[in-house]
Amino acid sequence: MEALREFLDGHLVGREIARVLPLAVNVLKTYDPPLSALAGTTVTAVARHGKYLDIVAGEAGLHLAVHLARAGWLRWKDSFPAAPPRPGKGPLALRTVLAEGDGFDLTEAGSTKRLAVHLVRDPADVPGIARLGPDPMDGSFDRAAFARLLAGEHRQIKGALRDQSLIAGIGNAYSDEILHAAKMSPFKPVRNLSEDEITALYEAMGATLGSAVERSRGVAAGRLKAEKKSGLRVHGRTGEACPVCGDTIREVSFSDSSLQYCPTCQTGGKPLADRRMSRLLK
């Protein structure tokens, strides 16, 4: 998302919005101000709050906050057909057209529609943004701040890393990658982490996220998803060889997601039971 923010910052800031068209029934979560208020405004900034993109426009500082969810994406277009698209057709959820004729589409694949767009006067008016924890990419997020967040936690580390109210912006894929880099079981209880393990986890988080941003810098929006997948070591690579030790990457499936890990690197060679309430086999 940070790489996508940088891409949009370079393509939107200083440019005038001609119109914004909602094309899926449930994509727009707010009604005041209306999307028509963006017509004729100039984009002044593109920010990121966790997994939310925040396009700021106009003298009044309207915020078009976008959460792409699991199956959503942003596709940059150099031009659009003359005829406006019909609502409810295909994956197209929202279209933003600039005065020069280019702009972007928001799309969402699949039948489960979770992509969300809010137009607000203050990003804190978006409930998902208001409850976000600190961003690990923020310069003030040091090892001591990380340790304070973990104090008193009773969850497994995988769930804690994915909790947006605890730490903003880490999802399923990069939590797998961070834990692999830290050589840590996803089911290890946070309360059992030693000081050295907290340090290793903090350093793995910074290195993994920093490397992902650097690798994606300058990549066009349409290629960012493919670039992300190409840089992942364990997530989405069930059955492949671990690039560190050569062991077979394994998976634990849940009702609506899955995680991937390397037994040799992360669990002492022992497989995790593939059931919802799994724990590391002892």
UniProtKB/TrEMBL annotation:
Parts of the chain that traverse the membrane: none
Catalytic activity of the protein: Hydrolysis of DNA containing ring-opened 7-methylguanine residues, releasing 2,6-diamino-4-hydroxy-5-(N-methyl)formamidopyrimidine
InterPro entries assigned to the protein according to its UniProt record, in alphabetical order: FPG_cat (IPR012319), FPG_N (IPR035937), H2TH_FPG (IPR015886), Ribosomal_uS13-like_H2TH (IPR010979), Znf_DNA_glyclase/AP_lyase (IPR000214), Znf_FPG/IleRS (IPR010663)
Check the record and name the PROSITE patterns matching this protein: FPG_CAT, ZF_FPG_2
Domain annotation FPG-type: ranges: 233-267
Q: Which CDD domains match?
A: BaFpgNei_N_1
What region holds the Formamidopyrimidine-DNA glycosylase catalytic domain?
1-115
Record keywords: 4Fe-4S included? no
The cofactor named in the record is: Zn(2+)
Q: Which Pfam families does this one have?
A: Fapy_DNA_glyco (PF01149), H2TH (PF06831), zf-FPG_IleRS (PF06827)
Q: Which keywords describe this protein according to UniProt? A: DNA damage, DNA repair, DNA-binding, Glycosidase, Hydrolase, Lyase, Metal-binding, Multifunctional enzyme, Zinc, Zinc-finger
- Any keyword Lyase? yes
Q: Kindly give the PANTHER family that the UniProt entry links to this protein.
A: FORMAMIDOPYRIMIDINE-DNA GLYCOSYLASE (PTHR22993:SF9)
Family, as annotated: Belongs to the FPG family.
The name under which this protein is listed is Fpg/Nei family DNA glycosylase
